Prior knowledge:
The complex is a heterodimer of chains A (115) and B (114).
Chain A: E1 5-7, E2 10-14, E3 19-24, E4 29-37, E5 44-49, E6 55-58, E7 61-65, E8 71-76, E9 85-93, E10 103-105, E11 109-114
Parallel strand pairs in A: 2-11
Antiparallel strand pairs in A: 1-3, 3-8, 4-5, 4-9, 6-7, 7-8, 9-10, 9-11
Chain B: E1 5-7, E2 10-13, E3 19-24, E4 31-38, E5 42-50, E6 53-57, E7 64-68, E8 74-78, E9 87-94, E10 104-105, E11 109-113
Parallel strand pairs in B: 2-11
Antiparallel strand pairs in B: 1-3, 3-8, 4-5, 4-9, 5-6, 7-8, 9-10, 9-11
Amino acid sequence: TQLLEQSPQFLSIQEGENLTVYCNSSSVFSSLQWYRQEPGEGPVLLVTVVTGGEVKKLKRLTFQFGDARKDSSLHITAAQPGDTGLYLCAGASMYSGGGADGLTFGKGTHLIIQP
Amino acid sequence: KAGVTQTPRYLIKTRGQQVTLSCSPISGHRSVSWYQQTPGQGLQFLFEYFSETQRNKGNFPGRFSGRQFSNSRSEMNVSTLELGDSALYLCASSLAYNKNTEAFFGQGTRLTVV
């Protein structure tokens, strides 16, 4: 069974601060996706990283895929209240058949940005 | 382009009843996956359909079943409901059957079993 551990579980910081959340596993993934979910809504895809060592930027968000494709991080610069939400990482298994099957989700990081 | 549509948004059922949830994927997407989300367990994979065939199934009892129609719309059914089935059920659609294909989620159906 593949597991994705996310840390921290909860994070509350002031507007303007920087933060990093982590997604770690002992398993290798063919790709890793990051989602943000707001209460009562479905997760919204932020980014997909595929290549080991890959770095992608989305405005103030920087995503990195570990060289060994077992871990990933999300760094937010100058956090804003609109960044508040549940951040989920999801790994696609190297060995599953395809599609969204075998997407393993971490339990998420609950992020609160206080004005 | 319309997103993933799940109906109903909210549902209250009694223990022992059965329930059917519906998911219409993004137009052109042929892969549909279902997930159960609870505060304690997070998002857990239920099953995935592509071209009307179940391609993979998560570790859930046989009370959970699903199907996909020729227009890619999908339904999932839960029979003999238990209190522990209360959760947000999410459907995700993908363009193709490929392990790196991005999944786009609907808003979910909030099921409460009383």
